[in-house]
Structures
1.
Amino acid sequence: MHPIVKLVSQRFALGILLLFGASALIFGLTEALPGDAAQAVLGQSATPEALANLREEMGLNRPALTRYFEWLGGIVQGDLGQSLTNKLDIAESIGKRLGNTLFLACAAAVVSVPLAIFLGLLAVRYRNRWPDKLISAITLTTVSIPEFLIGYVVIYFISVKLGWFSSLAMINETMSFGQKLNAIALPAFVLTLVVLAQMMRMTRAAILNLMQSAYIETAELKGLSNFQVIARHAFPNAISPIVNVVMLNLAYLVVGVVVVEVVFVYPGMGQYLVDSVTKRDVPVVLACGVVFAAVYIGLNMVADIVSILANPRLRHPK
Amino acid sequence: MMKNIPISAAIGLFFTGLYFFIAFAAPLIAPYGMAEVVGDVWEPSSAEHLLGTDNIGRDLLTRMIYGGRTTIFIAAAATILSFVTGTSLGLLAAVMGGWADQALSRMVDLVMSIPTLILALVILAIVPVTVPILILVMGLLDATRPYRLSRSVAVDINVMDYVEAAKLRGEGRRWIIFREILPNALSPLVAEFGLRFIFMVLFISTLSFLGLGVQPPLADWGGIVKENKDGIVYGIGAALYPAVAIATLAISVNLVADWVLNRTTSLKGGRG
């Protein structure tokens, strides 16, 4: 078998394995910790009889392993169970919200990825001179402030002081694409700021690392211009680390989106998860946790597979 | 060691020290009581209330000082827990090797395959939210990173000649870990400690902001944002002071960590 096919399928299998492991970990945590769904519904002051009755009704008396496989089987078939608090079908609620979240995340990614790579290259080109230092200082500041605070700083200055966009990101199906974009402008801007700094720093580090290789020195000694060295020699080899950086940060975006959605009251997955945690709606928390974990594991897997494919040494096996 | 200290690191050390001093001496410094209502809602800053008052008329400067105390205490405790657990398991895994190393490392891979915030939210949906539980959850979930760093650094050191010599001398595992490996692995670990501390400050602030961290009436920086965020649409910036506090603390600690890391480039471990 071709080594690439072998490596890729190995990585794919590992991803599937991790996905199972993650679902077991999330389910196992809710089992192993003191307190369960029945306790969460009735609160701390519930009588033991009431608890026993509700556990019976919810089927919590059966062995954990049986319930895990039932739950897992449900997920595979797209059945995530029912919410404890409002009895709605979880899969349906998640379906709508996941679309909204992905829309927001994609909008942020479309702006931030090219910008981060451009700024990263710029910082390398002017290494240790003022553009590099300026970019470093700004990114150090943005990585030092939590996402939700960046959100409020942006709301305070852009939405309240300048009055440009609404501080609430309301969105629904009747809106046109343009209206939707307008509604998510601020949260997407905040997410861009959050991942831009990380991505740019990692791009800069990846390329700088590369620039110290012997063949780059050779190219420089040959008398090529700075730009030619970067474009012809450094960039092709930098694709793999850069794609890796981008994917890792998109995975990070998935987490950042949780907090940003809460700030802007955006009807997405993050808001749903946080609400359900507050209400101790365990089935919804489990379902959201698994969806977030799946997206995160999936993006990490794609990152690894792309870097395997982009490695020229693997494309031409001896 | 204190000679040749770069200006950026000196600034970082000064501000980090200042924040820790304020955290320790909060009851002495704060002008009012932590939960004392002393004025109107969202008063602008004045001589009596340097930063104004908050959403129910408490002195904001007092809340910020006590908030810093809570935030820094929780973050420091969680970081220490995470480092003690992570490093001891990491060093043990590196020295023992074999199935123990495999089992621990695969377990860590699994935990790291899920975003920490998501995992923490799942746990906090079940357990009651109290300060000791928060420290435990944050510390244990984040122990994966010191584990990976200490293991990777220790695996490199473990094959050095002087460790080999100690093994041939018949030294026990305890000696190898504490007298041979740990002193040589300390520098990257100290730098990482600073970065993890920052992460913990951001983490606890985020949890409190989401209403799943420090519970009122206790003050903490994330909670102050949550309490005062409704003022923002009226142009009241009370919720933004924690941003300044968190950012300056984070940048100061970062400057110190960078300096520690740069002092020993030969043993640079993985970061992040």
2.
Amino acid sequence: MRARAGDLAAAASLVTVGVFAVLIVAGGRLAPADPQRGDLAASALGPGAGHPLGTDELGRDILSRLLAGTQDAIVGPLAVALATTLIATALGLLAGYRGGWADAVVMRCADFAHSLPVGLLTIVVVGVIGGGYPMALVTLTVLAIPADTRVVRGVVLAQRGLPYLEAAQVLGLRRTRIAIVHLLPNVAPTVVANCLLTFVYALVSLSALSFLGLGSPAGSPDWGRMLFENRTLLDLNPWASITPALLIVLAAVSMTVLGDRLLDRALDRSRT
Amino acid sequence: MRPALRLLARRLPVSALLLLAVSLAVFGLLALSPGSTERALLGPRPATAEALDAIRHRYHLDQPFLVQYGHWLGGVLRGDMGVSVQTGEPVAARIAERLSITLELGLYATLLIVLLGVPLGLLAAARRDGAADHAVSAGAVLAVSAPSFAVGVLLLYVFGVRLGWFPVFGAGEEGWDRVRHLTLPAVALALSQIALVTRQTRAAAIDVVSRDHLTFARARGLPGRVIWRRYALRNTAVPVTTSVGLVLAYAMTGAVLVEVTFSLPGVGALVMESVSNKDVPVVQGVALSAAAAVIAVNLLVDLAYLALDPRLRQAAS
């Protein structure tokens, strides 16, 4: 019964992610109107003819802006997730497999990042130093690396005593070769699952920054920014802020369900 | 008390070092902020030669970076975090006047986490694989990854605008009115942590009631009430402490988002005002205080583990 409920949630999440994938490719073309064109005569309209989700304060079509924003909402977090995973996997392999001082240095840095209010620091850094969207991407990546490194190191440590690694060592293979050719495929399931969870972190953080007016440029159809700009229209056209909020929640929840499930599977596999 | 002292002896120097590193980074913000430092510290006042000179002298800007840092750190240790560029008041005073709202919000959220998360987790564990368990577990999956600001806007719409049960703006007057104003923000702040505590309580309770000594207790005829209260509840103390620590650590970030969502005049809102006004000393003050608070909470959580779990006490000594 439990397994079936889990399967159902995973299937629903997979469908949701599929829909988002289609929207990334086709989103802009599906938009019924120009996402940037305003019409002050049609300001803050509720849903109706021509505007299925109504308009914002400047009279821009909400549905078109949501669709146009899909690409940015997904591509930025994806970049953060991939960059973080790449660097964290390299560092995790180094710390877990090589051990010694490399392990000590990497783990102290991870402890350091763990005991700081990371989200607040992101807001402060992007807010004070500036640098806009690229700066937001870099800051999020840097702050996510320590936690991900710890995860990769954990699974590498669990592999260390296994016979296949000892066999590779006895054969006299170089350590980098062992790490990349033999160790990496065995920790890959965990790395992939964790990458999904990092994606969620990046998606939520980037929309949070946009919500605060940082990161994405003013006027861009970013979901977080739309949420903030249209929050004052809750009584005139509530859809203008409810729909971006729902999309952010939907994207975050579906990716978390998939990531959690893959992570469970990967951990079960590595245990047996 | 031995293990606690040993823990403190090991952790305090590390915490101090950590705080020192953070303070250096926070001080560096000023130098890294765009434009000249004198102008940044001068703010909206007219940039006369005397005014700029006074600023340079006051902040030792003609000296090397590390000397400036030393002067600043000395001030911070004496409780002087500088002066707000925007209002000319001391930074500490500006933080203090906003602190109560943020503390009340954090306390409210913590209460919600403990009073909702633990009972829901125990309920799900007691009705394992039943309808209640499925409902609670599904809700937890949804809530755990839902971001506070998006949830906040949805709560505002449903309970503020549509149903009209709660006010949609500001912090209200002291007392009952304040509680009403802070209810939706506290729920938005607490929701993902409630889900986390529910999950962990459920897992901890299921783990402990399937142990041999509880099978024995049931066989001896101990009522289910005693088993759940005395054994299951106590075993949830560690995950709950972890989550409360997490929420306090996360409260500052969460507070920024939630206070902006609900227009609450707390420290989080102060951060955003200061960021948009380029009031760097205030931002520095809040960032440093928040980091110090998080480090202190982490230390307290580790001490609480020792008090709660005799196994950890033994491992430490």
